[in-house]
Design a protein that fits this description.
The protein has 405 residues and is α/β, with parallel strands linked by helices. It is built from twelve helices and 13 strands. The protein folds into two domains: 165 residues, Aspartate Aminotransferase, domain 1 (Alpha-Beta Complex), CATH 3.90.1150.10; 236 residues, Aspartate Aminotransferase, domain 2, CATH 3.40.640. It is globular.
């Protein structure tokens, strides 16, 4: 197959062939393609010409569908005049104005390319403002590829995490104990809107969690940082903190912000503006007018079409449907987390055998279901598309039941 030949070539010139979340080892190497040729709407085509109904949406980067026409048209217009210059393009100011008008606590915004760029920068801003060393995160939470938070082991030394503390998600008592143990030394707490750890069912915050976190940060003069990189615009058009009813001090966005164009943003309150200006931030191509234009139009679409509510409703329809099909075939199966970005979980499947086999059978039906990562619903998924996917998933559940029996 073309995909196999390309991967063989890649291994000779790229460490691992493909790496990180696109590595074959991170999914199903003999059943998923390694390379994509093109995509449109809710579908993509691999280099062997196979068509896939996509439920990964470029790992969350696509919210309006691949090649959304109004975004592509705006990008084509801006590209005629160039993209990266010596100075920022005026769209930089427009995008910052848009974000600060959308997000009620935001008084300023800065931009980069990846979520990691700004989660790492945000913890530095917290340290600059508070003059304290320690950062608290939830155990097994993913905040990027930098050494203080990455999920791997290679190239890391103990000092990389000497000032990073962890507690168990939803366990406010543990968080309170850390504040007590490291009194007046905690610069900030960085958390995702809900807990989406790898290789485990997603966990929503309990009723007291976010207000408890906010209170502890207030009482201890610590900065509350929301890593909204993965969830942003899929839960609420004003940011995921609105969905869970709390207010962070800093919030970081990426993925769906640019609908496939590389951009990230951090917003914050006015009291952090000086600290933000004192923490150096730059990148050769970070003032990319094309990506900023894509983000500006993506935000407008999200607001005008109420996309967050739309994908939540579509996700609810899909999740309930696929759970019913699974139960019809004798499986205890739940779509955990928010329905706009659910994580599939077979009860008792701690070694992940069932989800791997299910996704393998689903791949034979042209469904791109990931076994170890939450899925994503885009607004390009229609009800007919979702019904089609459900029927295809029925075949996968039937085949899985036959194999087990």
């Amino acid at each position: 197959m073309t995909s196999d030949r390309l991967f063989d070539r890649a291994t000779k010139v790229i460490p691992g062939g493909t790496y990180g979340h696109t590595s074959p080892a991170s999914s199903l190497p003999r059943h998923f393609p390694s390379f994509t040729r093109k995509a449109n709407g809710y579908k993509f085509e691999d280099v062997d010409g196979n068509q896939w109904i996509d439920f990964m949406c470029a790992y969350g980067a696509i919210i309006h569908g691949y090649r959304e026409p109004s975004i592509e048209s705006a990008v084509d217009q801006i590209r005629k005049n160039g993209s990266v210059f010596n100075n920022p393009h005026e769209v930089t100011v427009e995008l910052a104005e848009k974000l600060t008008s959308l997000i009620e606590f935001a008084d300023w915004a800065v931009f980069a390319k990846n979520g990691s760029d700004l989660t790492t920068w945000a913890i530095r801003v917290a340290r600059e403002f508070t003059r304290k060393p320690f950062i608290i995160k939830a155990g097994n939470a993913y905040h990027g590829v930098d050494a203080w938070c990455d999920p791997g082991m290679g190239g890391r030394i103990p000092s990389d995490r000497s000032d990073i503390l962890e507690f168990k998600w939803n366990e406010l008592g543990q968080l309170k104990d850390l504040f007590a143990k490291f009194s007046n030394k905690i610069a900030g707490v960085i958390l995702t809107p809900y807990h989406h750890a790898s290789f485990a069912a997603s966990e929503m915050p309990n009723k007291e969690f976010w207000q408890g976190v906010r209170t502890l940060c207030n009482e201890n003069d610590a900065i509350l940082i929301l890593d909204d990189v993965r969830c942003g615009w899929r839960l609420h058009s004003g940011g995921s903190h609105c969905f869970f009813d709390f207010t962070p001090d800093l919030s970081v966005y990426s993925k769906a912000l640019g609908n496939g164009y590389a951009i990230s943003a951090c917003v914050g309150g006015d009291f952090l503006k000086k600290a933000a200006s004192d923490v150096f931030l730059t990148g050769s191509c970070w003032n990319d007018a094309v990506s900023m234009t894509a983000a500006l139009y993506s935000l407008r679409i999200s607001e005008e079409r109420n996309v967050a509510q739309s994908v939540l409703q579509k996700g609810k329809f899909f999740c309930e449907g696929i759970e019913d099909i699974a139960n019809d075939n004798g499986f205890e199966f739940n779509m955990t987390g928010p329905p706009s970005m659910p994580y599939p979980w077979f009860n008792g499947d701690d070694n992940l055998f069932l989800i791997q086999k299910f996704c393998e059978y689903a791949s034979q039906e042209g469904l791109f279901f990931h076994p170890y990562h939450n899925w994503f619903i885009s607004n390009a998924h229609t009800q007919d598309t979702l019904l089609d996917a459900m029927e295809r998933s029925r075949e996968a559940f039937v085949n899985l039941r036959k194999e087990l029996d």
